[in-house]
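Data availability (excerpt). All sequences and predicted token strings are deposited with the supplementary files. A representative entry, Helicase C-terminal domain protein, is shown inline so that the format can be inspected without opening the archive.
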Amino acid sequence: MSNFDFLKQSIPEVHPNALKTESALRIDASMVAIYARITLEQLVDYLYRARSLQNPYGKSTPTLVDRLRNPEFQNLVRHPALHDKMRLIRLAGNKAAHGNRISGDVAMQTVRDLHHLLVWAARYHSPYGSAIDPRAAFEVTKVPQLPGSAPQQKVSQKELIKLAEELEQAREAHQAQLAAKEAENKALQERLADLEAQLKTTFTETTPQDIRDYNEAETRTALIDVELELAGWDTSAENLREVSIPNIPIRKDGSLGTGKADYVLWGTDGKPLAVIEAKRASRDSHEGERQAELYAQGLYRMYGVYPVIITTNGTQHKLWDQWKDSPTGKPGYQVRSILAFPTRNDLERLHARRRAQPLNNAPISHDLVDRKYQINAVRSVGTAFDAENRRRALLVMATGAGKTRISMAIVKMLSDAGWVKNTLFLADRVSLVNQAVNAFRSHFRTEMSIVNLLTDKDTSGRVYGCTYPTIMNLIEQRKFSPGFFDLVVIDEAHRSVYSKYKQIFEYFDALLVGLTATPKDDVDHDTYELFGLNQGEPTDYYSLEQAVDDGYLVPPRGISLSTDFLSDGIHYDELSDDDKAKWDLIEWDEETHEKPNHIPSHLLNDYLFNKQTVDHVLSELMTQGYRVENGNKLGKTIIFAHNQNHANYIRQRFDALYPQYGGTFARVITHSTERAQSLIDDFSDPEKMPQIAVSVDMLDTGIDVPEVLNLVFFKPVRSYAKYWQMLGRGTRLCSDVFGPGTKKTDFKVFDCCRNLEFFRSDFKAPNGTPQKPQATRTFETTLALLVELDSHAGELSSADYESLRPALVGQLRTFINSLNTDSPFVRKHLHAVQRMQDESIWSSALNTEAQEQILSLAELGGNIGEGAPVALSFDLTIRKLQLDLLDGNIAAAKPRLERLRKIALGLSKLVDTIPDVERQKAHFDYVLSEAWGPQVSLAYLESIRQDVRGLLSLLSKSERKPFYTDFADHAHESIETEILLNTTGTVSPQEFEAKIQYRMRELLDNPAVQKARKGYALNDADMQELDAAFVASGEFTVDDILTVRQDHPNLGLYVRSMVGMDRKAVQKHLKEFIREDTTQAQLDLLKMLTDALVDDGTVEPKALYGIPYSDEYTIDYVWTSRVAQTVKNINDGLPQSVQGS
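Structure token line:
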């Protein structure tokens, strides 16, 4: 008898491999994981067919991961617990396939998880579901005894052959799927072959034990009680635990009896607010949902109040707010995750919302919003929350459309209808928070108290304004419970907010409203996902184009300004003799005295500021800009500068060109400006100076000056959110700005950096990903280095391995041990944190599960080490360099080696004056010697890190020295440029790559492409030739090319990956390995390698040591290592000198 006998009738196609998975428990734990993964793939195939699911869009041969993540499939498999089990089976299979050992415990849990999945599938997705017991549990006693599994019993050759045949049949049965997923499953096939070889000698007797787990009582005592107490509940109260509830189904046959709820949380009126059902710590918190629902129904019959249902495993909690006692007849909400238990006040407000007034006809304050689109926006939020039963809404409104007033109207409507009591308004800048708080106070005054969490000591109120970092800190301090706010409003919701602060929205169990000025097609996928919306389908949308047509905003009028330098950069060879002489006198690099021969246009105004270039832009502004007071004075103008030095230089040149204004006409307003707010106030007053505000980031958003008539984009902008925010500084209406009866009808945008061209283009590079915090990046890099180090353990010297591994483990454990386990963000991962405190986990190579758990902790804000920020940055540089060298990525290592050389040069100058520096002189001498390079050992790099990191603070801040020049710069004619008010959206990274590949294939005759296809390194001239070809196509901008260059430092390898290698060139590179004594196996390897290089352009050298290239019986390690070195040389790019050989 088997635990999987039920599959014979319900899902027969899955039964054979399920049985093999179970039987493998008596043979080998790794086989369990591999067979379980194969069975999972079969199950997924079956579910796709049985429920007529379509493969993920654009995936003709989807991987298992693609199919599991398919929204259709996720909707079919609704319970997160089932998704988690599928994920764990997949990961266990991958781990086993890559040669990592699987413990007996993991094998047993894998089979249990597989059994749970198959019971669920047979019950709910097969024709014989009624015959399946949904609560059937896996029983170890039913695991079949295989021949030869008894201790000390020899296995016959016949039985070994039979098992080998079964393995082969299992592999052949999935050949089609495995071929379609070759990249993912190649390792799986290799591991199966390894296991077959192992079985030729003996079976491995494994006696798996059940995984140690908290039981119900331990879960309550160790985890849940603590969480309840933090939420203000008295866990010693007599009626809190084990509450008897009569007349509920307690047996499988449905017979009634008295059940005992784990916890019941009571209101001040003695009625139940919530019922909590606890399960074991490793169980998904969804489990127990039905049981808790029966308890809730019983309590409803007893008290007339339907309690909120909470299920928990101690660290993860699910809340189900059903409205069965609501007079509105609404069903309530779906199950949702919460990070901490609600307080009594939180629960009472949830119950109160069940009696809230419908929002379909709720009054909207016309004192706050009186325009039709504003009223529509407020009403659309009400519809989303009420009629559509959503909890999140996203409004895309043009800058200047009155988003703050709309948000106030939403707050008032929801408050008056009883939906909301407390509201949190979040913005990313202090000025925006202050602005919103002042607006709320000016309108609501006595109606509701407003709190600015940045400044107010009294934090009792109804509407709270705050920045994201401050509210994160307050959450960490548990100043607010998860249900304290009924509504959270996000000002300017976009990707960076989601990326950096998503934990805020996970913590607060609140309705969520997002506001953004970015056009709906340019809002990124992550933002729509945060609000549970389809891409390009916000809750409500009011575009700048529509606002202009309706007469509520004015349009921009674009003027492109350019010069030779702004367009093409500065080329030494193109300068006049006088300017060359000036160039030669500049001290470009005080250390090396090297002189560049070209300054790219994107670096102009970054650290080099040319007088004639800036003067031209200011002259064009003063002559073409809109003027007021009968043309006698330039209208209010904002110049967006590149950086502080640029802003200061712009003002300096303006004052030199126009001394008649006495130095008050143009002022710098940045975060570095003292009393900047007073200058902003003066700029906002049409009767006061300055007329020109030169800003760096500070005035991009949040300033509302209707009199602004001119904007100057004197820096490159590639963020859609920022671009539209900047344009919004000029869109406000302004009557009588040119005199009585003459209103503002548009505003001018002077673009000096091809921004209008970029945002007008149909083809745009993808948005960048916001950078993670340094501690997170260091943690992730250190973990990756540890995993890679362990995988190369047999290849490294004992000095490298033994010196580096303890340091890596120490850094990771320092980070984990520093986590605040009282933080609600950390408690969600408490099981992983506690597990990683077990020293035995770290004593050997981390398995896949441990890696996943550790990685999940990366964004929790731990400390990665002691020292100043520069020391921590130095740690990250060393870790990345060690990882590059371990991976053989010399191209990536070179700039890091050079950075260390510059640090050593700077510190070496302090050797004679500071004893601590003098003690490390040997390090500096070596780094500055000719011996310094990619051959440096990992152990020596570690000693440098430990010895030098504390000295970094002695170096002055490494800012690039600014250069101020006066070269002749030819001005181009200004061009009127259309500004599109309704863009078509961005392309995905995949489409971007596809477009590059398409263009690359059209350039096969290009000498640089031909050179790359032959395996040779590309020099600067080759790269410039490629750049020119791509820009000339009209489909790519210079910034697109820069993006590719930054993402792919080894451009030759990138080109080859796009178009493959030339077959004759490959054969030429490999011909030295074809000799009279070359074996057939070696010839086969060379043929496969040649085909792979021709098709894919690159092969990982380490792949040559495994299937399909080699096997452990025929491999000649010396010969193969020589071939691998040649492949590595090709990947790195062969030097120019070998082309003729």
